[in-house]
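Budget justification aside, the reviewers requested a transparent look at the raw inputs and outputs of the sequence design task funded under Objective 1. We therefore reproduce one unedited record. The lines immediately below are the structure tokens for a 194-residue chain.
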């Protein structure tokens, strides 16, 4: 295991013993990837940050029960995935639809709150990049849940297939199959746009 992986577990164990600085280091280290994970589902930075904050709150509250049975990132993304499932279920009970099987519309839809980086980009380039980003978000929203999860974990988080397998509790072969089908479907969807 790489040192950072061992270090994450050691930090979580230190936090379990009451070292709040260890928790701060974990948050600093994993906040951006966690926000990217949720952004892959919602396409809205504020909602992604809110979801990540809730995950850290859950980890904070459950620190006394933490046992290092897997890598810390496996634990973190399992909590994140369960939080997302709970959020979708709660939203459906309230009557608000946040389905992973259809494109989001309105304020929460693709492109809502989209960030266009500043720099040497011309307005035309910025518009084209935004259109491409929106097309990718729409295509991602059309993937089945399992394919979207695997794609987001692999591409946005940089997780290896074995790690995804642990987090989702599915065989590595299923992860590979879902990734293959996700990439193939995304190519089809994006080819239709261009």
């Amino acid at each position: 295991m790489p040192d950072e992986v061992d270090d994450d577990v050691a930090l979580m164990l230190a936090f379990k013993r009451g070292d709040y600085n260890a928790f701060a280091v974990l948050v600093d280290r994993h906040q951006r990837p966690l926000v990217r994970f949720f952004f892959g589902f919602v396409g809205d930075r504020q909602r992604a940050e809110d979801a990540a904050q809730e995950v850290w709150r859950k980890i904070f509250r459950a620190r006394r029960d933490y046992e290092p049975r897997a890598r810390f990132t496996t634990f973190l993304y399992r909590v994140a995935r369960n939080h997302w499932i709970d959020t979708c279920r709660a939203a459906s009970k309230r009557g608000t639809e946040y389905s992973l099987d259809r494109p989001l519309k309105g304020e929460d839809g693709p492109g809502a709150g989209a960030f266009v980086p500043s720099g040497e980009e011309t307005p035309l380039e910025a518009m084209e990049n935004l259109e491409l980003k929106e097309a990718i978000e729409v295509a991602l929203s059309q993937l089945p849940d399992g394919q979207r999860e695997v794609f987001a974990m692999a591409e946005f988080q940089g997780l290896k297939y074995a790690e995804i397998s642990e987090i989702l509790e599915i065989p590595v072969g299923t992860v590979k199959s879902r990734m293959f089908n996700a990439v193939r479907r995304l190519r089809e969807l994006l080819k239709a746009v261009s």
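The CA atoms of residues 80 and 169 lie 14 Å apart. Helices lie at 3-16, 20-42, 45-61, 72-94, 123-141, 145-156, 161-168, 172-193. Computational costs for records of this kind are itemized in the attached budget.
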